[in-house]
Write a sequence for this structure.
């Protein structure tokens, strides 16, 4: 292994969960690292050994003799789907974890009101039973009283599994007790022939199967995504990337279903935990949702037949945003200039003098926002609250949501503060102070969640710093004027 570092592509560090047998073999260690990087998958010794045998046969040489050939095959878009066949297990059956399908059936009346085809994705679909189960369920209800259309996209990194799915022929092993409550639906769409169950053509036409690597993200958005019982195959750092890809591919208020054993380990700033009808799942946060257009039933009030879920945080704030034409404009550069003069104290005095008349219309949004920042800095929470309430009535932007988070944070209400910071981050991907606060609030909790949030903060800082000088955003004025690099170093030290 004396020259293993060069052969392994200058690997900075070896993952801690590498199987012991792999550490003594340069080829297998190289494969472990590259597979983990490309597919995000943690590979076992037997799978790596079988893959190495395949590569040696394909390359007509060993890794030691020709490492470049190995690297070429592992970076080939076509070959990676073939290679994945050695690494994944295709355990699946119809209507697996049936309680999730029962909830989906309950949501269909509301989904049918979208006025367009419902878009569903079955990610890491294996040999196709999940995607066909979704299509069967939706088609059954569409033919029995509900007026809607739908489309199902289904993918897996295992190209052999995708071909089996397209063939749509299954053994009796794919019909199990956990799903038997949907047997009446399966009987309508599975044709028994010989020793196989064949999916009917009308259902096969509803599902589009294709090979795809989830680490590359998705190229469209969906109302519902199923990604079940697959996170276990990914390393901890790559789970963060996978969940982020899924969250970004959900439409506003869209739903994400994971495996029953995976849900508790997932935290993401765009995903709200939900529980209904004995099912845990996630809903994409959409601050602009109104009570009328949320499709999910309330976790608390789901026994009431027609009760709908309030939007995230509506229970706490009960506020409606004003139409945009009524909003005041808040400019960051103006806030920065104001705070440079005696930390904004003269401006605050003028704004507060007019607060008694409850008429701040003579002041710009920047001046009002700068006043709130100054009051928070000197811990005048009473007047800061009044200013922020005025802002909330006249502006729904990221700065206002951040300031609401700041006063909640300083008053010790971390949970509600984090929700406000989330809204600010969603409204402006460049607004790194919101991401920073979220990361700090998560530092005492789950390490994986904290690492994810640190990563998102650094990404936001980098995005902000990548802007041209004339478009520079001096967001540091919201955090005492210290540079974004200063806060980045703080987070990097916390990770270490």
């Amino acid at each position: 292994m004396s020259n293993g570092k060069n052969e392994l592509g200058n690997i900075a560090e070896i993952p801690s969960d590498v199987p012991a047998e792999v550490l003594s073999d340069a080829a297998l260690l190289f494969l472990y690292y590259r597979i983990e990087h490309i597919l995000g998958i943690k590979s076992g010794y037997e799978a790596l050994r079988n893959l190495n045998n395949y590569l040696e046969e394909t390359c007509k040489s060993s890794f030691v003799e020709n490492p470049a050939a190995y690297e070429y095959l592992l970076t080939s878009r076509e070959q990676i789907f073939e290679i994945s066949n050695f690494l994944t297990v295709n355990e699946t059956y119809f209507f697996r974890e049936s309680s999730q399908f029962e909830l989906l059936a309950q949501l269909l009346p509301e989904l049918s009101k979208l006025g367009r085809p419902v878009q569903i994705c079955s990610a890491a679909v294996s040999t196709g039973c999940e995607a066909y189960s979704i299509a069967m369920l939706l088609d059954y209800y569409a033919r029995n009283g509900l007026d809607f259309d739908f489309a199902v996209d289904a993918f897996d990194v295992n190209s052999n599994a995708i071909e089996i799915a397209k063939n749509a022929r299954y053994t009796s092993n794919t019909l199990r007790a956990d799903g038997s409550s949907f047997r009446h639906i399966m009987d309508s769409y599975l044709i028994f022939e010989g020793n196989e169950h064949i999916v009917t053509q009308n259902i096969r036409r509803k599902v589009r199967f294709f090979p795809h690597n989830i680490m590359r993200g998705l190229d469209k958005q969906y109302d519902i995504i199923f990604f079940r019982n697959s996170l276990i195959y990914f390393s901890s750092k790559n789970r963060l990337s996978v969940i982020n890809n899924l969250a970004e591919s959900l439409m506003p208020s869209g739903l994400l279903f994971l495996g029953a054993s995976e849900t508790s380990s997932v935290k993401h700033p765009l995903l709200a935990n939900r529980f209904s009808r004995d099912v845990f799942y996630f809903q994409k946060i959409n601050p602009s949702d109104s009570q009328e257009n949320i499709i999910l039933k309330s976790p608390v009030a789901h026994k009431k037949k027609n009760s709908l879920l309030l939007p995230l945080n509506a229970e706490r704030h009960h506020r409606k945003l004003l139409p945009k034409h009524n909003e005041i404009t808040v400019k960051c550069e103006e806030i920065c200039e104001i705070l440079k003069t005696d930390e904004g104290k003269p401006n605050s005095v003028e704004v507060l003098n007019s607060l008694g008349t409850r008429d701040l219309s003579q002041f710009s949004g920047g001046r009002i926002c700068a006043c709130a920042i100054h009051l928070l800095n000197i811990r005048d929470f009473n007047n800061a609250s009044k200013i922020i309430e005025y802002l909330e009535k006249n502006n729904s932007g990221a700065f206002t949501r951040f300031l609401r988070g700041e006063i909640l944070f300083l008053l010790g209400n971390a949970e509600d503060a984090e929700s406000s910071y989330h809204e600010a981050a969603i409204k402006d991907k460049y607004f790194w102070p919101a991401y920073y606060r979220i990361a700090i609030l998560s530092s005492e909790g789950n390490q994986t969640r904290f690492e994810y949030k640190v990563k998102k903060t650094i990404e936001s800082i980098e995005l902000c710093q990548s802007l041209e000088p004339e478009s520079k955003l001096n967001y540091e004025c919201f955090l005492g004027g210290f540079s974004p690099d200063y806060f980045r170093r703080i987070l990097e030290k916390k990770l270490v």
Notes: The beta strands are 118-123, 150-156, 169-170, 190-193, 196-199, 207-211, 222-227, 250-258, 271-276, 279-284. Confidence is low (pLDDT under 50) at residues 1-12, 289-325.
